[in-house]
């Protein structure tokens, strides 16, 4: 999995007044969990652009001004309900020898027979939770829709999972091909035409 670096500064004061002062200065208060103790730090809003405002999944290298560096993943983010401004971010420290769970996007490949026949591809899950060692975390889950005919569904059990596990029930649907209105109308008209008596023939 690709990684991005966030440079920040460790913070000593964690109260409401200090947090508000950070936000007013254009900084985002953050907490890193998963180590011996929580690490409180802050970073500029722009530092999170490629982490938050993207459909892709990343691991993170957090570099603090005191020379400390941590490998982590985004755990939780709080945004303002009106302005969408980032208010707070929680990270979780990752370790090379411990599996972690992270949400990654689904990448569709192939051409579905059902779609080519006029069906609509519906995405039930655009992201899936996977579990793996940090070095085995995938950038995405690859879903091949080639075998899908009209009315078929693609389940999580049908996608390759080398070196990682999908953390969803076996009956979880990734996507499906539904009959479109145009295809349904064409089928109905064809059925009517088949039932109607041929012109020129006596009853």
UniProtKB/TrEMBL annotation:
One of its GO terms (molecular function) is 5S rRNA binding. It comes from the Bacteria. The keyword Ribonucleoprotein applies. GO terms for biological process: translation. InterPro entries: Rbsml_bL25/Gln-tRNA_synth_N, Ribosomal_bL25/Gln-tRNA_synth, Ribosomal_bL25_b-dom, Ribosomal_bL25_C, Ribosomal_bL25_long, Ribosomal_L25_dom, Ribosomal_uL5_bac-type. GO terms for cellular component: cytosolic large ribosomal subunit. Keywords: Ribonucleoprotein, Ribosomal protein, RNA-binding, rRNA-binding. Pfam families: Ribosomal_L25p, Ribosomal_TL5_C. This is one of the proteins that binds to the 5S RNA in the ribosome where it forms part of the central protuberance. Part of the 50S ribosomal subunit; part of the 5S rRNA/L5/L18/L25 subcomplex. Contacts the 5S rRNA. Binds to the 5S rRNA independently of L5 and L18. Belongs to the bacterial ribosomal protein bL25 family. CTC subfamily. This is Large ribosomal subunit protein bL25.
């Amino acid at each position: 999995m690709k990684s991005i670096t966030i440079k920040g500064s460790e913070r000593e004061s964690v109260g409401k007044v200090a947090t508000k002062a950070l936000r007013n200065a254009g900084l985002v208060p953050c907490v890193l969990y998963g180590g011996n103790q929580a690490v409180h730090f802050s970073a500029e809003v722009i530092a999170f652009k490629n982490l938050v405002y993207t459909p892709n999944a990343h691991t993170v290298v957090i570099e603090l001004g005191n020379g400390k560096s941590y490998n982590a993943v985004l755990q939780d983010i709080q945004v303002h309900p009106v302005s969408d401004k980032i208010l707070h971010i929680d990270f979780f420290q990752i370790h090379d020898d411990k599996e972690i769970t992270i949400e990654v996007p689904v990448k569709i490949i192939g051409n579905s027979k059902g779609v080519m026949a006029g069906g609509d591809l519906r995405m039930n899950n655009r992201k899936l939770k996977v579990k793996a060692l940090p070095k085995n975390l995938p950038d995405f889950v690859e879903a091949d829709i080639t075998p899908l005919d009209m009315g078929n569904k693609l389940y999580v059990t049908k996608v390759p999972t080398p070196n990682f596990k999908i953390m969803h029930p076996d009956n979880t649907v990734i996507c499906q091909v539904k009959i479109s209105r145009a295809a349904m109308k064409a089928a109905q008209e064809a059925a009517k035409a088949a039932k109607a008596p041929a012109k020129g023939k006596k009853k």
